[in-house]
Amino acid sequence: xxxxHAWFMLKEIAEQPQAVADTLRGRIGEHGEIMLDEVRxxxxxxxxVDKVFIVSCGTSYHAGLVAKYxxxxxxxxxCEVELASEFRYRDPVLDRSTLVVVISQSGETMxxxxxxxxxxxxxxxxxxxxxxxxxxxxxxSDAVLYTHGGPEIAVASTKAFLTQLAxxxxxGLHLAQVRGVKYADEVGAVLAQLQEMPxxxxxxxxxxxxxxxxxxxxxxxxxxxxxxxxxxxxYPVALEGALKLKELAYLHAxxxxxxELKHGPIALIAGPAGDGRAFDRGTPVVCIVPSPAGRGVLxxxxxxxxxxxxxRGAHTIVIxxxxxxxxxxxxxxxxxxxxxxxxxxxxVTTVPLQVLAAAxxxxxxxxxxxxxxxxxxxxxx
Length: 381
Ligand code: M6R
Description:
By secondary structure, this protein is α/β, with parallel strands linked by helices. Helix content is 43%, strand content 14%. The chain contains 14 helices and ten strands. The chain has a five-stranded parallel sheet with strand order 2-1-3-4-5, sandwiched between helices. Strand 3, helix 6 (110-121) and strand 4 (125-130) form a beta-alpha-beta unit. Helix 4 (58-75) runs parallel beside helix 8 (159-179) and helix 11 (209-219) crosses helix 14 (346-363). The longest helix is centred in the middle third of the chain and has 21 residues, at 159-179. The radius of gyration is 20 Å and the shape is globular. 5-amino-5-deoxy-1-O-phosphono-D-mannitol binds at residues 57-60, 104-106, 109, 112, 155-157, 243, 247, 377-378. Its EC number is 2.6.1.16.
């Protein structure tokens, strides 16, 4: 049942190319039109939307954070992302022209369900992005887009995240198409790039041996923290990488927007203690680097952030695309991912972080599929 993998999580990581392909299947027409008929929102409904809220928890919240960059860029509609447990208790401004997108793998998360009920009471339209057919959240929503990722058994969410991204991007591109706004021209190009994601994820998966080895090394040490830094969509990827480490490896980890380092977190960085421990190489900092193409400024900024942390003794684990030579001098370890436009980069940059967390957990003797204190679906508040 685990297809030869030691854990369901590893099987689910390996299934990601197929899962993303399944989310996209049948939804992109011959002429680049996005077909979301099952969404049951009319084009007029979508033209009336003047505000988008994405509401979810945990990894699904991180998918929403990535989606915000894409949706606002393509549609020019303001988009806010909020934790479901916060959203429902703070009286958000909602009305008929607000589209509330709730994202949930299980479709049973109580906080997300309560947030959706609150949104409906305020007359907002609610669209669910969900992996579980017939679960409560899609049943109570006005519309649903299923991710078709197949069952996710491991508590730590992996393929759900990537399929949620694919679904969110389809929604964003569809909104842009229907509304015909400035960036509608980009839609065709982005759709073609989206369809290349399964092959790119496959490529990343094929090169994960060094990441597994790093995981084993980290497991042998008493590293007190692992930090993750990113900018733009790399920031939610950093948050997701840190969440995976916390829940699986029981290791303190934090994700930061790299631009915030100087405002506090850089004080956490320390050099090697010189006490001869197996991983005595300074605070591990995983750096998610965007493509140097397109948004070059973003790339240059993060390269200086990597230099800054390294100058303070960090051991830098740099995730950067093939051909990006600027990072080489500052990378203690370099993980290459295929060239990918910035907005879509999370499809490839998240994968090494999942593999790393699973490797540390496995090497530490933890139950990778069933971490302590956690349940797959959180049906209480
Ligand atoms: O089923 P949901 O997507 O609503 O679940 C949300 C979170 O509970 C979930 O993503 C959780 O954070 C995962 N265990 C993270 O790996």
